[in-house]
Amino acid sequence: MSAIVFDLDGTLIDSAPDIRAAVNRTLEDEGHAALDLPTVISFIGHGLPRLVERAMGARGIPMDQHARLTEVTLAHYNAAANDLTRPYPGVMAMLERLREEGHRLGICTNKPEAPARKVLDQFGMAHLFDVVVGGDTLAARKPDPAPLHHAFAALGASSGLYVGDSEVDAETAQAAGIAFAFFTQGYCHVPHDTVHCLARFDHFDALAGLVAKGATAPDR
Ligand SMILES: O=C(O)COP(=O)(O)O
Ligand SMILES: [Mg+2]
Predict the structure, then answer these.
(1) Among the atoms of ligand 1, which is closest to the Cα of residue 51?
(2) pLDDT string in tens for the chain (220-residue length)
(3) Reported CATH class of domain 16-79
(4) Residues forming CATH 1.10.150.240 domain(s) in the chain
(5) How many CB atoms neighbour CB 37 within 10 A?
(6) Which of 5, 6, 7, 9 has most ligand 1 atoms within 8 Å of its beta carbon, as the pocket-test mutant?
(7) Does the Cβ of 134 fall within 6 Å of ligand 1?
(8) What is the pTM of this model?
(9) DSSP run (H or E) holding 148
(10) Ligand-binding site membership of 130 (annotated)
(11) DSSP assigned state of 9
(12) Ligand 2 centroid, distance to 65 Cα (angstroms)
């Protein structure tokens, strides 16, 4: 038995199109032009408040509107979190296999906890996870290691494997002293060879094999 914790956006699910739609609804409500998908993807990774801040910056909206527009965007997202979102190929089979092998699974995402739970539920994945830590579950969010420590503690493990798609996840794992497996098809914003990881993979069919080969050994 080991504990395996997953990032969500860009790792288990390709959620950027719905995130983009929510942000663009907010911008359009305010009379501003929409943002394209690559631009929105470049803003994903540090949580919703940061994403809204960057979208506002791109459109020259004064930051005194930030708290309000973050709430508005969250409401838009909660209303339509699964219209365009899809799990990456092989995700469901991989999660079920890891559970069958006796691993305990968790989520550590910077997405707010409520929509994270909702998305997992709508894809029929919620029952596979023993803990969901979102960007607003604790006072700190990734790359602070606290949310990842919290997830592993809830699983009754001090170590295991963290699986994510971005430099933020790699930094978080390193700060937490947890081994990191890097899914390369998500929303990473730096050259892939600069991402510190124990293993990298581009399809979830490969993950169970990595776990079996001992990718859950401590990273340092
Ligand atoms: O909400 C974000 O900015 C990123 O979410 P993630 O941590 O699941 O990639
Ligand atoms: Mg991610």
Answers:
(1) 3
(2) 589 999 999 999 999 999 999 999 999 999 999 999 999 999 999 999 999 999 999 999 999 999 999 999 999 999 999 999 999 999 999 999 999 999 999 999 999 999 999 999 999 999 999 999 999 999 999 999 999 999 999 999 877 999 999 999 999 999 999 999 999 999 999 999 999 999 999 999 999 999 888 765 544 3
(3) mainly alpha
(4) 16-79
(5) 11
(6) 9
(7) no
(8) 0.95
(9) helix 146-154
(10) no
(11) B
(12) 26
65 and 57 Cβ atoms separated by less than 8 Å: no
Antiparallel, parallel or unpaired: β 131-133 and 161-164: unpaired
The token pair at 216 is: 């859950």
Residue 7 designated active-site: yes
What is the CA(22)–ligand 1 centre distance, in A? 15
- The CATH number that domain 3-14+86-212 falls under is 3.40.50.1000
Q: What is the location of CATH 3.40.50.1000 in the chain?
A: 3-14+86-212
Report CA(21)–ligand 2 centroid distance (Å): 18
Q: Which of 7, 14, 18, 169 is catalytic?
A: 7
Regarding an ipTM greater than 0.95, the answer is yes
